[in-house]
Amino acid sequence: MERLPGFSGSNSFNWNDDADFGFSGNNRYLSFGDDNESLSIPISGGDNRGFTRNLAGGVNYNYDTKKTKLSTSYFFNQTRQDLSTLRNQQRFLPGSTLTTTDTSTQMNQNANHRVSLRFEKQLDTTQTLILISNGRLGIGNNNLTSLQRINQSLAGGPQQLYSTSNTLNGTQANQFALANTALYRLKFKKKGRSFAASATYQITKNDADLRLQSVNQFFQATTVSDMFRNLNQDQNTDLLSNQYKASLLYVEPFAKKFYWETFYNFSLRFDEVERGVFNLNDSRRRVDTLSLYYKNNYTYNRLGSSLRYSYKGLNVSAGLAGQSFVLDGKYNRDRSQELIPIRRTFNTLLPNVGLNYDLKNNKYLYGSYSVGVQIPASRDLQPVRTITNPLFVTVGNPNLLPGLNKEVDLGFYYFNPGSFINFSTNLSSTWNDNQIVYGQSVDTQTLITTTSPENVSGGRSTGGYLGFGFPLKKTKATLNLNGQFNVGRNFTPIRQTRQVGGVTEVVSDILNDTKNQNISGGARLELTPKEWLTFYGNANVNITNAQYSVNTAQNQTIYTYTYRGDLNLKFPRDIYLNTTLNYRSYINDRLGFRQQVPILNTSLYHIIGKAKRAEVRLSAYDLLNRNVYVSQYAGQNYSQTESIQTLARYFLLSFTYNMRGVTAKMRRQDFY
User: Fold this and answer.
1) How far apart are CA 100 and CA 389, in angstroms?
2) Are 390 and 229 in contact (CB under 8 A)?
3) Three-class SS of 563-623
4) Contact by Cβ (8 Å): 62, 9
5) Model confidence over 509-560: pLDDT tens digits?
6) Which of 585, 630, 515 is nearest to 88 (CA)?
7) Local confidence band at 361 (pLDDT 50, 70, 90 cut-offs)
8) 23 versus 356: which is more confidently predicted?
9) Could you tell me what percentage of the chain is helix, strand and coil, using 3-state DSSP and rounding each to the nearest 5?
10) Partners of 80 in beta bridges
């Protein structure tokens, strides 16, 4: 990940600015399942996929005194990303496999203006007031051209072409978001007693227009009307969301070693969404079956309390919170029609246990037990079809319940500053009740897949980590070893249907049981024998095994190997050379997929002047001209490989000036 240098105002992140109070050390137990873009300043120049053009700039103003701190910033970024993608996906059904080959080109362009302000005032020695404001104004557009081919293979037999889809989509969106928070903290004369209060107002507005054109051909159809299904639509979506939040926290010490903590959270959110779908082949006639208007009001209350014991490095806490979530919504195809009410109330008890033990001689033991709640997203509760790809349809489920996950975590860390030996281990496990998963219904005649959110219990995962580092020779050579594992189990409802006389008939209805086992290990070598010579090397192996109860013949193993070496040399007259070789190998024998990606980068740079404030650098990226983005996935009831053309061999001449000085990084503190 490439960082944008030299920009991070003092208000960019503060640990004490969390206004949603909760259990000590872990405050968030509720997620609303929404996908709005963050208000924070992005620090990445891209995700290393495709071809990108980035423009960014910003300005900070900071004013700090003993009692008053003010920080403001403005940041602008503009990104264009061009993607050329080849994606192969296999979905597993009882007795058959669906193979989708998707060749697509995509252009994403976004421009964002972000402003932020943080004001902190120490009213006196016991009172502090903090005001925070973050805003974002964004404009984006997206163009996608895609050709999909779906083949079916019965019982391991040859593939048969069922359908093709030529799609041309274009999206334009305008986004606005603003969040304002006031935070008040009070320390009493009694040591350890404290009080805090917060209030937040957030507004989000998103207006989007999607132009959807698609030509679809079904080769197994028996009539011309069923063989060709074309789509030419305009989909307009307007969203407005207002949210008001307030929180209280009180901490009372007693008996010298105990603390009683009590908190209360309140949230009230109003959502209004209108989606209109129009058929451009029929004089822009409104398609009522795909259009939707809804207003949702969310009321959230949480009251919790915990008891914490703290003495000589040992901190143990136990608490319980009661949580109530009320959805009061109305919806219909059009706002002019009588709205249909949806009212849901979810009440949950959330226990929490925490352990932090600071042992002697740099040894630390920690553990926790917590319960989290995932509230269904608004779009998942609306019983309306959404079509952006005619071969894959989504529909909401008004009977969806919140998902509940229970997690246990235990870990230990040790570091010896004398011998430079470090050791760490961690073990965690998660159980899911009413987990929100997306069930699939496949039409056996057209292979059109409809997904809908459902609740399924029984999913779980267990993982562990072990790391050990020690010097081969003090200050000259260090070796770090690590290994980890994860075992998971998830369920996906899969149905096969067919149309009989205009009525949908269920052919089969099963619950696919997917088991994943992941094992990885790695070694990292750090050599720093001389001031003018350093070398860092690492090797990692990742093995993932996926087993599907719906079609055991498709069980598969994915291998990912990563090797990297980083050599740094210092020559006389402040001249430096850096060379990096990164070799990645991806293997999935079940799919016949093998891809090797060796990337060789090198740079020669010179630090100029006695004050060392300037640098001239000549860099060469991907000298072997082999760069490509590759990803592999196996889970649920499908596996997928993806390859994206990416910027390959190029050269760059750069000049850097820094008033604070330029430093050559011969030794790495963040090498992985």
Assistant:
1) 13
2) yes
3) EEEEEEEEECCCEEEEEEEEEEEEEECCCCEEEEEEEEEEEEEEEECCCCCEEEEEEEECC
4) yes
5) 999 999 999 999 999 999 999 999 999 999 999 999 999 999 888 899 999 9
6) 630
7) confident
8) 356
9) 0, 75, 25
10) 53, 109
Write out the DSSP string of 356-388. Answer: EEEETTTEEEEEEEEEEEEPPPHHHHS--EEEE
16: region left, alpha or beta (phi > 0 left; psi from -120 to 50 alpha): alpha
How many contiguous H segments (helices) and E segments (strands) does the chain have? 2, 31
Residue in 428, 436, 478, 477 with CA at minimum distance from that of residue 453: 436
Please write down the HEC assignment for all residues of 481-535: EEEEEEEEEEEEEEEEEEEECCEEEEEEEEEEEEEEEEEEEEEEEEEEEECCEEE
What Rg value do the Cα atoms of the chain yield, rounded? 28
Report the C-alpha gap between 585 and 564 in whole angstroms.
12
Question: Which pair of structure tokens corresponds to residue 631?
Answer: 């990803």
Among 630, 649, 637, 636, residue whose Cα is nearest residue 86: 630
If DSSP codes are grouped into helix, strand and coil, which group holds residue 225? helix
State the average pLDDT for the chain: 89
Give backbone dihedrals phi and psi of 104, rounded to 5 degrees, phi first.
-145, 155
At 669 the pLDDT is: 62
The DSSP line for 21-72 is --BTTB---EE----PPPSSPP-BS--S-SEEEEEEEEEEEEEE-SSEEEEE
Question: Which H or E run includes 224?
Answer: helix 224-227
Instruction: For residue 322, give the nearest of 353, 352, 354, 348 by alpha carbon.
Output: 348
Determine the straight-line distance between the first and last CA of the chain, rounded to whole angstroms.
Answer: 13
Instruction: Give me the percent of the chain exceeding a pLDDT of 90.
Output: 71
Q: Is the dihedral of CA 587, 589, 590, 594 positive or negative?
A: positive
Burial class (CB in 10 A: 0-12, 13-18, 19+), 124: exposed
pTM of the model: 0.84
- pLDDT tens digit sequence for 621-650: 999 999 999 999 888 889 999 999 998 899
Residue 454 is encoded by which pair of tokens? 């459902």
> 4 pLDDT band (50/70/90 cuts)?
very low
Q: What 3-state DSSP class applies to 347?
A: strand
Q: Which residues contact 407 (CB under 8 A, 6 or more apart)?
A: 368, 369, 370, 371, 372, 428, 429, 430, 431
pLDDT range class, residue 15, cuts 50, 70, 90? very low
pLDDT of the residue at 262? 96
467, 478 Cβ separation under 8 angstroms = no
Token pair belonging to 501? 């006389």
- Give the span between the Cα atoms of 141 and 135, in whole angstroms: 20
Beta-bridge partner residues of 75: 58, 114
pLDDT confidence of residue 398: 85
Token pair 């334009």: residue: 172
Has residue 59 got a pLDDT over 70?
A: yes
* Residues 101 and 591 sit within 8 Å (Cβ to Cβ): no
Place of tokens 């060789």: 600
Parallel, antiparallel, or unpaired for β 68-93 and 96-122? antiparallel
- pLDDT at residue 9 in the model: 36
Cβ-based neighbours of 170, under 8 Å, separated by 6 or more: 141, 142, 143, 144, 210, 211
Instruction: Taking the CA atoms of 268, 240, 30 and 440 in sequence, report the sign of the dihedral they define.
Output: positive
